[in-house]
Design a protein that fits this description.
The chain has 335 residues and is mainly alpha-helical. The protein contains twelve helices and four strands; from the N terminus they run H-H-H-H-E-H-E-H-H-H-H-H-E-H-E-H.
């Protein structure tokens, strides 16, 4: 199936391929939106608290594009695309999305959530940076091994269990903001499956389109993955954050991004490494730009989140957004 898709796409001109990439990204984000909406609807139907929805189901749903893209890329032998997409998504989530959301409206901070989730967010990124070092792979390039992928997935399960326990300790909140009308259970499940199908199918078209385009125009796949694909797969988080801020629920936007960053390490990279026997190779240029930028933006966000204002201010949002723009410029300046 993959070979048929690849051979078919190879016959199109580069311009048409760019159009296919744009359409694939759009369908990818729409599929994720449908999936998130129905997952939220089901969680409300079953009485799951609002806090757990934001920290687990919403983040899991909006991170599915990254998971699908990275796992398929790893299976197809493109580890730099898989890793670049995950790290690029963390940078886009925290720099671009939080930065824009802070400029659009107020982003209040839940100190309790930041102390727990924020610490895990930064520790996950640091752990990823450490295991990516060549020191652990006995070679000139770093390698995130298959067994490390399974460890990441195990940590993901522990993270979800811990989040549910934290949620149970918090007071029950009204979750009516998430859904406007009741829908039959059978229809909700059908829509949920449709969302999953859209995400998977669009990802299967997106990967070869990006690969062919990158080869034709001479741009490394890792750069494409860390910028264009990462931005496209981060669209669900972007839409969720902007909508939440406009409705006066900025804390939901912050919680979703923190959860998505954690899942990008434990779920996205963990799954991609687990499905490949050789693990994920870490290109040497990742140590120059991708990983340092990820750490700088996350540390800055951590500092901003613990300030006395109890919110991410507009100047802080401008700083995060500026870091993301500089990151984009350096990606293409170093080609």
């Amino acid at each position: 199936m993959e070979e048929l898709v690849y051979s078919t796409l190879s016959q199109f001109s580069t311009l048409i391929l760019f159009a296919i990439i744009a359409i694939s990204l759009f369908v990818l984000s729409k599929g994720a939106d449908i999936l998130v909406d129905q997952a939220v609807g089901l969680s409300i139907r079953w009485g799951v608290p609002k806090m757990i929805i934001g920290a687990t189901i919403v983040s899991l749903g909006t991170t599915l594009p990254e998971v699908t893209v990275s796992v398929i890329a790893a299976i197809n032998g493109n580890p730099d695309l898989a890793l670049g997409n995950a790290i690029g998504s963390i940078i886009a989530d925290t720099g671009l999305i939080i930065g824009l959301a802070a400029l659009i409206g107020r982003l209040p901070i839940d100190k309790g959530a930041i102390d727990r989730q924020g610490r895990i967010q930064l520790m996950s990124a640091v752990m990823l940076s450490v295991v990516s070092l060549p020191f652990f792979s006995k070679g000139p390039e770093g390698r995130i091994t298959q067994w490390m992928g399974f460890i990441f997935i195990a940590l993901l399960i522990l993270y979800i269990i811990a989040t549910i326990r934290w949620g149970r300790k918090s007071s029950e909140e009204d979750s009516s903001d998430f859904i406007e009308e009741k829908c039959p259970l059978f229809l909700q499940i059908i829509k949920l499956v449709l969302g999953i199908v859209l995400v998977i199918v669009s990802s299967k078209i997106l990967i070869p389109s990006v690969e062919i385009s990158a080869i034709r125009i001479g741009i490394p796949q890792s750069v494409i993955a860390a910028t264009l694909v990462a931005f496209g797969t981060s669209l669900p988080e972007l839409v969720t954050a902007i909508t939440a801020v406009k409705k006066g629920h900025g804390e939901l936007a912050v919680g979703n991004i923190i959860g998505a960053d954690i899942l990008n390490v434990l779920f996205v990279i963990g799954s991609a490494a687990a499905v490949t026997k050789g693990g994920l190779l870490v290109p040497t240029d990742f140590y120059k730009l991708q990983i340092p930028t990820m750490l700088i933006i996350l540390i800055a966000f951590r500092i901003f989140a613990k300030n006395e204002n109890d919110s991410i201010t507009k100047p802080e949002g401008i700083f995060l957004l500026g870091m993301y723009l500089i990151y984009l410029i350096l990606n293409y300046a170093w080609i």
